[in-house]
Amino acid sequence: MREDLEQQEQMAAIRGFWRDNGRFIVFAVVVIALGFGGYQGYQAYTAHQGEKASRLLSEFEQSLAQQNITNAQALATRIAEDHRGSMHHALAAMRMAKSLVGGGDLEKAVKWLEPIKNHSDEGLAWIARLRMASLLIDLNRLDRALSVLTEEKPVEAMLAQVNDRRGDVLALMGRNDQARKAWQEALAAWGGEPPKSAAADLVSRKLASLPSFMAEPAVKQ
């Protein structure tokens, strides 16, 4: 009899617990299940999106190889719209910009590189910034070229190239003291004197010729 009473008390306690907390427990279990299912679904969605982007990038490369620029640009635009910020987007944009430069359309090339200069991969972003700066120099948009190179701190691996390009822009603007400093920083990043690479040798020669560099300050755009 005593055992029966204890079992009844336990059952009553369990029922009371579920009456007071059951709804919350069921809700928590559902949330956990949905969360796990959502994570699995997100993983599958991400993989699917990656496959789609890879196929588009492959089609884009084929169009470029066949010199079908109209189709290539349409595919690059689709990649940019559907997969913005991805590595596929960055690669397509930089390849599209290179193709446009080959055709002499520097303005459009700059527009393709613009979103890539803030890519999450900093190395890739700085490659885009250096290419943009070179195109902007050719377009005589020197203020914009300088801002592209100075609005963010360069990654260590790109420090020499960025300072070299900054020196180019500053020299063309007639700001020779600042150009000298930028080139000196580039040379230091490449290992100092004597130059230890062809790129460093070129910077060293720029520094040597700077006193006689008589570039007129460029007209601001």
Strand and helix layout:
Blueprint: H1 2-65, H2 69-82, H3 87-102, H4 106-113, H5 122-138, H6 142-150, H7 159-172, H8 176-189, H9 198-209
Mean pLDDT: 77
Enumerate how many helices there are, as a single number: 9
Quickly count the domains: 2
Largest sheet: none
Helix content: over 70%
What's the β-strand tally?
0
Write down the Rg. 30 Å
From the N-terminal CA to the C-terminal CA, the straight-line distance is: 99 Å
Order of helices and strands: HHHHHHHHH
Structural class: mainly alpha
Enumerate the spans where pLDDT stays under 50 for 5 or more consecutive residues.
1-7, 20-48, 214-221
* Anisotropy-based shape: elongated
User: Approximately how much beta-strand content do the residues carry?
Assistant: under 5%
Description:
Residues 1-7, 20-48 and 214-221 have low confidence and may be disordered. This protein has nine helices and no strands. It is elongated and about 50 Å long. Helix 5 (122-138) packs antiparallel against helix 6 and helix 6 (142-150) runs antiparallel to helix 7. The longest helix has 64 residues, at 2-65. It has helices at residues 2-65, 69-82, 87-102, 106-113, 122-138, 142-150, 159-172, 176-189, 198-209.
Key traits:
single chain, 221 residues, mainly alpha, Serine Threonine Protein Phosphatase 5, Tetratricopeptide repeat, 2 domains
Provide a compact summary of the structure.
This protein has nine helices and no strands. It is mainly α and 221 residues long. The longest helix has 64 residues, at 2-65.
